[in-house]
Design a protein that fits this description.
49% helix, alpha/beta, six-stranded mixed sheet, 12% strand
C-alpha cells in the first residue's frame, strides 16, 4: 500500500499509519481509498487481527478532507461538461461505503488523532468506534465543508447528530465551526483527551481492553439520538422548524449546501445508517454538481491557499523575512499593522509625530491582546509581544529596520515628507511599503530615491480581523520589493493579491461602485430600504448605504474631490458625486458624526433617516427588488472587468480573492470573475448593454468582454486570440 503502513503487534492489534506521499497533509484521494479498502478487508478477514488503530504518520496532523484535485476530476468530464449528479453520487458513495465497512468489520477500531483532523479526515474518525486526541492547543477537529460550498459527504451529516444530538451538531455544521480537544470531549465527539503524543498508545490500550466493542451505538437495537429525533419528537420538530428560516435568512437563499444539509439530516436521522448515508450522498451529489460549489472551492480554498503559499512571488528572489518593522503612523490602521507584526514575532518601531499618539497606538496593541487572554494568549506571551512594540517620535529610532510601512494621512505631500525623512535614516535600499487605499503608488514612489524598492501594501480595517492584503506594483516596482512584501504578508498569516497601479487600485475602485450605485439609486428616488435589502439579498455583507456610512460619506467626497483635482479634464464624473456632496452639505457625514444615510441615536438602534425623503424625494413608481439587485451587482462586475482589461489585474484568481476577502463580494458566487464565467460572458454583455441604454455609460461593456463573448472565451478558460492563431 502506498498511502497506509499496515503493522500488526504481538497483541494482534493492527496499526494503520496514514502517510500520503507528496502531500504536506494527509488527504483523501483514489490511492488512499484503494489502500483503505484493502486494509479493511484484512482487518475483517484475518483472525489474527483482534482490532485496529488508525493514526497519522505526518507531523502536520491527522488528516484533512478530500484531495481537491481528485474532487475536481470528479466534477469534470472529457468534453468539459459537468457530469450529472448521478455520476458524482457513484463516486462519493464509494467513500461512504468504505467508512461503513470499517465500522461494521466486526473488530474494534480506534482513532488516534494528533493535530488537525477536519473534513473527510474527521468523518473517518467518526466511523471509528473510539476517538482519542492529543491535547495540543493548536489541534482542531470538525466539519468545515459548508465554508467552501459543500457539506459533509462522508457520513458526517449522519454520524455527528447521532453522537452529539441534532441541534448541537447543526450549529457546528451549518457554521463550519471547529472543535478544540477539550470542547470535543465535553460534547462527547471524542472519547479521550490525552497528553500530546500519547493518542496512539491510548487508542491501542482501549482496543486491547475492549476486544468485543465492535459495534457503533446506532447499530444497536433501541438506539436513540441524543435529544431526540423524528417527526413525533417535539424537540426535533422545533429544531428543524427553526433551522430552516434561520438558515434562509443567514444565506438570503443564495447558498445550496446549507439547505441540502438540513434535508439530509431531516430525512436520514431516523433511518438505518446504510440508508442514511445514501440520503446524504444523494444531496451531496446534487450540491457538488452545481457550479456554485466548484466556484467556491476554487476561490475560497484552492486559489486562496496558492496565494498564501506564494503563487505571485518572484521565484528567483531569496526569502526576505522582516525582523524589524518601521511602522509610520500610529492611528487605527498603523496600530493594527503593528499588532499583527508584533504577534508574528517582529520588533516594531511605532512612529508618530506626537508621542501621545504613538503611545495611544501601543495602547491599541495592548487592548487587542488583552481580549485574547485565555484564548491562546497568556499574560507572559502578551508581555513579550508588547515588549516588541516601541512607540516613538524620533526618526533615528527607525535605524536597523528592514521593512517600512507608512500609514500616515492620505495626502501626497505629507506622505512624501515622511518618506524622505525615513530614507535619510534607512537608505533607499530598504523596501518601503505605503498603506494607501487610493493614491497612485507610482506617484508616491517619486519621494523614494529607488522607486524599484517602493511598493503599495494596502490593508483593510480592522487589520486584526480582515484577512486580505492588496499588494500594489508601481510602474518601477522591482522583484525584491514584491518578494519582501509577500514574505511579510506570509509572516502575519494573511492572504495577498498582487495588482498594478491605478487610482483606487482594484479593491477600493471596484468596491466604490457598490456605494456609488446605492447613492445613484437614492438620487433617483428609490426607497432606501429597498436598496439596502437588495444589497443584502445579493449576498453582500451590508447594504451600500450602511457601508457608505461606515467608511464615511465625507471621506468619499474628499477622495472624489482629490481625484477631480488630480485628473482635471480626464476625470469622469459620476451621478453619485452630487448626491454625496449634498449629503455632506447637509452635515450628514456618516456614522462618525451620528448621521448619514442612517441616524444613530445615542443608546438606540440605527435606522434609515426619514430626512432622506426630504433631501431626495421618493419616486412614485418603485422598481422590483430584482432590478435593484441587478444594478448593484453589474455595476461591480463591469468595474472588475475594466480592471482586468486595463491590466490592473493580471489574473482572475486575484480578482475573485480580492473581491470576496476585500469588500465581501457575494461569496457564494466564487467572486465576480467566476460569476461572469458561470452565467456566461455573452449574457453579461447583453445585460450590461441593456443597463447602459437605461442608466448610462457606466454600465457599458468593455471591448474585451465583447471579444470574449464573440469567441466563447471565459476568464478562467480563455481561447487563443485570432492573431495568435
Amino acid at each position: 500500500m502506498e498511502t497506509i503502513r499496515f503493522d500488526i503487534d504481538a497483541d494482534g492489534i493492527a496499526t494503520l499509519t496514514i502517510d500520503v506521499p507528496g502531500q504536506s497533509m494527509n488527504v483523501i484521494g483514489p490511492d488512499f481509498l484503494a489502500d483503505l479498502d484493502a486494509a479493511i478487508t484484512r482487518i475483517a478477514s484475518e483472525e489474527a487481527i483482534k482490532g485496529a488503530v488508525i493514526a497519522s504518520g505526518k507531523d502536520s496532523g491527522f488528516m484533512a478532507g478530500m484531495d481537491l484535485k481528485y474532487f475536481g476530476s470528479m466534477l469534470a468530464s472529457a468534453d468539459g461538461q459537468r457530469p450529472a449528479p448521478t455520476a458524482i453520487f457513484d463516486n462519493v458513495f464509494v467513500l461512504n461505503q468504505l467508512f461503513r465497512r470499517l465500522e461494521t468489520a466486526g473488530k474494534p477500531v480506534a482513532c488516534a488523532i494528533e493535530g488537525t483532523c477536519v473534513g473527510g479526515g474527521f468523518e473517518l474518525a467518526l466511523a471509528c468506534h473510539r476517538r482519542f486526541v492529543g491535547d495540543s492547543p493548536k489541534t482542531q477537529l470538525g466539519l468545515p465543508e459548508i465554508l467552501i460550498g459543500l457539506f459533509p459527504g462522508g457520513g458526517g451529516s449522519q454520524r455527528l447528530p447521532r453522537i452529539m444530538g441534532v441541534q448541537a451538531s447543526l450549529m457546528y455544521m451549518l457554521q463550519g465551526k471547529l472543535f478544540r480537544p477539550a470542547e470535543a470531549a465535553m460534547l462527547k465527539v471524542v472519547d479521550g483527551v490525552v497528553p500530546q503524543g500519547t493518542a496512539l498508545a491510548a487508542a491501542k490500550d482501549w482496543v486491547k481492553a475492549n476486544p468485543t466493542a465492535n459495534t457503533q451505538p446506532w447499530d444497536v437495537k433501541g438506539f436513540k439520538v441524543p435529544g431526540g429525533a423524528g417527526g413525533f419528537n417535539p424537540a426535533f420538530v422545533q429544531t428543524m422548524a427553526g433551522a430552516l428560516p434561520m438558515t434562509l435568512k443567514q444565506t438570503q437563499r443564495n447558498m445550496n449546501a446549507p439547505i441540502a444539509l438540513l434535508s439530509a439530516v431531516y430525512e436520514g436521522i431516523t433511518l438505518p445508517m446504510d440508508r442514511a448515508i445514501r440520503i446524504e450522498s444523494k444531496y451531496f451529489a446534487k450540491v457538488a454538481a452545481d457550479p456554485q460549489a466548484s466556484n467556491m472551492i476554487r476561490t475560497l480554498f484552492v486559489n486562496k491557499q496558492a496565494a498564501e503559499r506564494g503563487a505571485r512571488r518572484p521565484k528567483d528572489e531569496p526569502k526576505a523575512p522582516t525582523t524589524k518593522l518601521a511602522m509610520l503612523g500610529a492611528g487605527m490602521m498603523g496600530a493594527g499593522i503593528a499588532t499583527v507584526a508584533a504577534q508574528a514575532g517582529m520588533d516594531v518601531v511605532l512612529f508618530d509625530r506626537d508621542q501621545a499618539y504613538a503611545e495611544k497606538g501601543k495602547a491599541h496593541v495592548e487592548a487587542v491582546l488583552a481580549k485574547r487572554l485565555g484564548r491562546g494568549m497568556t499574560p507572559e506571551k502578551m508581555a513579550a509581544t508588547l515588549a516588541r512594540v516601541t512607540p516613538t517620535t524620533d526618526y533615528a529610532a527607525l535605524a536597523g529596520a528592514d521593512f517600512v510601512i507608512e500609514a500616515v494621512f492620505e495626502d501626497v505631500a505629507i506622505k512624501a515628507e515622511v518618506t524622505k525623512q525615513v530614507e535619510a535614516v534607512l537608505g533607499a535600499d530598504t523596501i518601503f511599503g505605503s498603506n494607501t487605499s487610493t493614491l497612485p503608488i507610482t506617484k508616491l514612489a517619486n519621494a523614494w530615491s529607488k522607486p524599484e524598492n517602493f511598493i503599495g501594501v494596502h490593508f483593510f480595517s480592522p487589520v486584526e480581523k480582515m484577512p486580505l492584503v492588496e499588494i500594489i506594483l508601481g510602474e518601477k516596482t522591482g522583484p525584491a520589493a514584491i518578494a519582501k512584501a509577500l514574505d511579510f504578508v506570509a509572516q502575519i498569516k494573511k492572504t495577498p493579491i498582487v495588482v498594478h497601479d491605478s487610482r483606487g487600485f482594484y479593491t477600493s475602485r471596484s468596491f466604490g461602485t457598490y456605494v456609488q450605485e446605492g447613492a445613484e439609486l437614492v438620487g433617483e428616488g428609490i426607497n432606501p430600504a429597498l436598496i439596502e435589502n437588495a444589497g443584502k439579498q445579493l449576498g453582500m455583507p451590508t447594504g451600500p448605504l450602511a457601508v457608505s456610512d461606515e467608511v464615511s460619506i465625507e471621506l468619499g467626497v474628499k477622495i472624489m474631490t482629490a481625484a477631480k483635482k488630480e485628473l482635471g479634464d480626464a476625470y469622469v464624473p459620476q451621478g453619485s458625486d452630487d448626491i454625496m456632496v449634498k449629503m455632506v452639505e447637509a452635515d450628514r457625514l456618516g456614522r462618525k458624526n451620528g448621521k448619514g444615510w442612517y441616524d444613530y441615536p445615542e443608546g438606540g438602534k440605527k435606522h434609515l433617516s426619514p430626512v432622506l425623503g426630504d433631501l431626495f424625494p421618493r419616486a412614485d413608481a418603485q422598481p422590483d427588488v430584482e432590478k435593484v439587485k441587478e444594478r448593484l451587482l453589474y455595476r461591480q462586475l463591469i468595474e472588475c472587468a475594466r480592471c482586468f482589461e486595463e491590466g490592473v489585474l493580471e489574473t482572475p484568481e486575484d480578482g475573485d480573492i480580492g473581491a470576496i476577502f476585500g469588500w465581501g463580494f457575494a461569496p457564494y458566487t466564487g467572486g465576480p470573475f467566476s460569476h461572469m464565467d458561470t452565467v456566461g460572458i455573452a449574457h453579461v454583455v447583453a445585460v450590461l448593454d441593456r443597463l447602459a441604454a437605461a442608466h448610462g455609460p457606466r454600465f457599458a461593456p468593455t471591448a474585451q468582454l465583447r471579444d470574449m463573448a464573440a469567441n466563447g472565451a471565459t476568464f478562467y478558460r480563455p481561447v487563443p486570440s485570432r492573431a495568435a492563431a
